[in-house]
């Protein structure tokens, strides 16, 4: 493997390569550089590092591992077994949402987490489900564990109906505050850990 860089960039190389499988090191590097400039990060890897990572990191992934980073496409993603058919409604909802935002298609990993979050919190607002699913999809790539307390917030915020077991209003703000506390959303493509707080 090439010299160590922030694990975030390893994940971004995989995501970019999954979305643009015909891109080489040069185009992948340019995409990373643009993302870094947008987010104000100066620690992005060199083009040489990207090339070496693609040869030694990406090329060594199994086809199944690479499939996680391929773009979502309905019904092909289900026919190929990348996602279960049961995820179709959530996947199409996610595609429509990102299309409305003029954003790129999600990869299979992002769509899978969106489906999972939708299963856990079906009545939560779409943008909140998307934010949470992006956190959960990108956390392994960035070396983060599942955010502490997430299970409790989801369990106690319930299915976002208007009341908890005691009949008191249980506002969606619990989950919104939880998500905002973990990440500052810098743009629709990626997240930057909130180190200010």
Q: How many domain units?
A: 2
Q: How much β-strand is present in the residues?
A: under 5%
Radius of gyration: 18 Å
| Strand adjacency order, main sheet | 1-2
Shape: globular
Helix fraction by DSSP (H/I, runs of at least 4): 55-70%
Cα separation of the termini: 33 Å
What is the succession of H and E elements? Answer: HHHHHHHHHHEE
Mean pLDDT: 80
Number of strands: 2
- Residue stretches low in confidence (pLDDT < 50, at least 5 long) are 184-197
By secondary-structure content and strand pairing, the structural class works out as mainly alpha
Q: Report the total helices.
A: 10
Strand count, sense and barrel status of the largest sheet are: 2 strands, antiparallel
């Amino acid at each position: 493997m090439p010299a160590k860089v922030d694990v975030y960039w390893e994940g971004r190389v995989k995501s970019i390569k999954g979305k643009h499988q015909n891109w080489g090191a040069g185009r992948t590097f340019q995409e990373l550089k643009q993302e870094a400039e947008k987010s104000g990060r100066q620690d992005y890897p060199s083009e040489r590092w990207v090339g070496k990572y693609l040869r030694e990191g990406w090329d060594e992934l199994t086809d199944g591992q690479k499939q996680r980073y391929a773009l979502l496409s309905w019904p092909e993603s289900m026919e190929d077994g990348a996602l279960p058919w049961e995820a179709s409604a959530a996947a199409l909802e996610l595609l429509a949402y990102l299309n409305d935002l003029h954003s790129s298609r999600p990869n299979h990993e992002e769509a899978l987490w969106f489906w999972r979050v939708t299963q856990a919190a079906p009545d939560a607002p779409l943008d909140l489900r998307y934010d949470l699913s992006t956190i959960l999809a990108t956390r392994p790539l960035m070396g983060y564990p599942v955010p502490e307390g997430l299970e409790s917030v989801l369990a106690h915020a319930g299915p976002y109906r208007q009341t908890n077991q005691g009949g008191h209003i249980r506002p969606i703000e619990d989950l919104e505050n939880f998500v905002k506390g973990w990440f500052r959303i810098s743009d629709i493509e990626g997240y930057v850990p909130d180190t200010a707080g």
